[in-house]
Amino acid sequence: MNGFPWGDFAVGLAACAGAALAVMLATFAVALVKGMHRIVDVAWGLGFTAVAAVSFALSAGHGDDGRRLLVTLLTAVWGLRLAGHIALRGRGHGEDPRYERLLARARGNPRLYALRTVYLLQGALVWLVSLPVQATQYVPGPVSGPQAVLAAAAVAVWLTGFLFETVGDAQLARFKADPDARDITGARIMDRGLWRYTRHPNYFGDFLVWWGLYLTACADAAVAAVTLVSPLVMSLLLTKGSGKRLLERQLANRPGYAEYAARTSGFFPLPPRRDGTGRAGV
């Protein structure tokens, strides 16, 4: 298929699965020592970075070096920034209530239950979502002409998402650090900056980052078709899975949140509703 080295790519898939597993197992060991599973959220970004690095190393001699380096750097910058942000945000805090509730449902050995339902599952998701990153490393042909336009579009989408995520996280951190900060109704709800237009600028940023990375795989039609599942899975995770849906369930009873949700888009950035009626956006 257009000279794509499917056999070598398959070997790379196996190695990247091993890299994701290694990161999660190492994190699990640290979690057992600390008695806290929230550190797995730090491993999420590190897992993607490890996969990108392994696929870059194994794909040497295949694909275009510029494209390989580009997709590796974009993934690593996103992953390392996210890991660092989550590590700093969680410093000094106890266990995440999400994991407390999850482990409360454990049957049998709670450690094995955590390994299976948290670490191995997240490792599998890292491998699946990163398929475009892995495949792009092997796409043949130079980045020129239409391919250069596609690469520029991928970077533009990625950069927009990265800025949304980074700026949104910084704005929320400043808000939390100010004990007197309030929204327009006087409630302790963040509705400033990007948070005025979407309730989840960080998740929306992730959404764009991974669709941007997927565009790098679209340099080969067959690869694009095979890896389309990855941004779709990430989109579902962000909107229907452990992202937006779960977080809003936790915030539902916070004073002022219902009013904020009524005037602010749920995901895609939109102007806030002036009358505060109905839910804007998805």
TrEMBL record:
Keyword entries, A-Z: Membrane, Transmembrane, Transmembrane helix
The protein, known as: DUF1295 domain-containing protein
Pfam families xrefs: DUF1295
Matching Gene3D superfamilies: 1.20.120.1630
GO cellular component terms, A-Z: membrane
InterPro entries: UstE-like
Transmembrane segments: 12-33, 42-63, 69-88, 113-133, 211-239
Keyword Chaperone: no
